[in-house]
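Hi team,

Filling in the usual template for the complex we talked about on Friday. All components are listed, including any nucleic acid strands or ligand strings, so the model treats them as one assembly.

SUBMITTER: L.P.
PURPOSE: interface mapping
COMPONENTS: two
RESIDUES: 640
SEQUENCES:
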Amino acid sequence: MATLTQTAVRTRAENAPQRVRRRLSGRVASAVAIVIAVLWTTPTFGLLLSSLRPEDQIKSTGWWTFFSDPQLTLENYQQVLFGTSSSSGQMMSFLINSVVITIPSVLFPLALATFAAYALAWLPFRGREWIYIGIFALQIVPLQMSLVPLLSFFSEGVAVFGVQLLPAWDLEGPARFIQVWFAHTCFALPLGVFLLHNFMSELPGELMEAARVDGASHGKVLRTIVLPLVGPALATFAIFQFLWVWNDLLVALIFAGGTPDSAPMTVRLAQMAGTRGNEWQRLTSGAFVSLVIPLIVFLSMQRYFVRGLLAGSVKG
Amino acid sequence: MDFDFAAELPKLVQLLIGVAAFLVVVAVILVLVDRAPMRRRAWTHATILLLPALLLLTIGLVIPAVRTTLLSFMSGDGKQWVGMDNYGWMFTQPEAVTVLRNTLIWVLLVPLLVTAIGLVYAVLVDRTRFESLAKSLVFLPMAISFVGAGIIWRFVYAYRAEEQDQIGLLNQLVVAVGGEPQQWLQEPPLNTLFLIVVMVWIQAGFATVVLSAAIKGIPAEIVEAAKLDGATPLQMFFRVTLPSIRSAIVVVMVTQSIGTLKLFDIVRTMTGGQFDTSVIANEMYNQAFRYGETGKGAALAVFLFVLVTPIVIYQIRQRREALR
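RESULT (copied from the run log):
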């Protein structure tokens, strides 16, 4: 609102020649802006429209033909979601997998990072600085560095010089989700601790001192004072982690495998793009199913998202 | 056509187990912290709160990073030491050198294009009536997975032989102006550029939002003073806007460089790394998980780490300064 009023005042203060010049450059500027906006929305629009067109039409004519010959159907969605043959997509199974993978993969790092950040920000103990710097420095490690060893940790356990220290996890069926949760939690912690620590260390120390003098335990301070105050930071971290996990392909490919038992939608779509690259009726509808949920979350929480971006919370 | 919901039940049970485990972990930690005796030194409390995170970081990142480094000096099966052989392969064999060249093209072009487009767009829509709508439109691809974006753009690039109707937008435009339809993704070296377009499409919104916020942060007095001096819009842009938002531009470039170096999904979904389009992260996946060449995969991962490290350190220092 403040910027709006400012602009209004400024426009009124301008003299006539300035206003003319402004309008001229404004017209070119608007044109360029509109071109960019159109370029940025058309591909998605084409996908959405195609996903609603009958199969033979998608494969034989471009989606723009819709405007001269409008035909819409939900058949593709029906097929891709609920079809049971292996060629149909079986997207419903993968959609459920995505949900099952995402929820714990957001909750665990959120809680563990909160605890760690609180300890690092407000508990006086020796070595605190060093531990913080250590966690902080782990942001450098690309997750490619840990894929092979972490996978063998799950499948072979830990053996040092032939002595088996930890057994293999041997996870089968739905239990495989555990290793995906585990991997996502590990990879999320450095950034999570860093972000939440930043927010927590800026809270006024007197608040916590007062509560501690009154005999409140650390658990109580954390629950009743810190959590309500860092709510927005938690929301930001949660939405970033949600988008990251939901949209992730690499971690899922390696830790969730490629079957309807545990693989998320991204893995399925990548498979379909490879083997059924011309089954556009399923690719378009399948892709749109995977886009809808993050788009809703994103649009409803855009405020936190933008705030997070500006606070530097993009996971590289 | 009869989807069996009952078959999906075990997954939902697993989800419930996961959420229950989460609640138990949180409850146990909180109870332990409440019960632990209060001393001046907060060691016990710190240990309880920090231990789970430190344990996971050690298992998930620290030890694996060390092991990957060791693996990069070993043969594919991880049984023999081969010295620098894997690194030698990376810098001499044509297929590996192509990968490095492609990665270089990506990391040079993406940050530049993303920043340029984001900046121009942010300046153009600044303080217009449709600003927030305009920004949302460009910002929206940020929510889309790279896989989803890959499919959206494969559809744009779709190819049909000349006598057929085109179904891909790009070929339709080419045909409309009298050209021949092309297989955009199969002809090197241009196909890498068509993949880069996808990344730029996804990331431009990020640049727009960050730079737009920076533009709004330019002190009004400076803008007023420049206007009073009769600065033209172009002068305003180069003499006032650009210098004032330099640090935001650096943030965008740095973030984009890191993301681009680690890029995997777009290449994987759109070409699978065929037709000379592979990049480091994709080749690392292929070597380590498809060809069983763990040593080569590890060497690529280590090289990625070496490339990313200076940029991340720079980024972290920037963040710390920004927080002060």
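MY TAKE: The beta strands of chain A are 158-160, 163-166. The domain at 91-310 of chain A is CATH 1.10.3720.10 (MetI-like fold).

Thanks, L.
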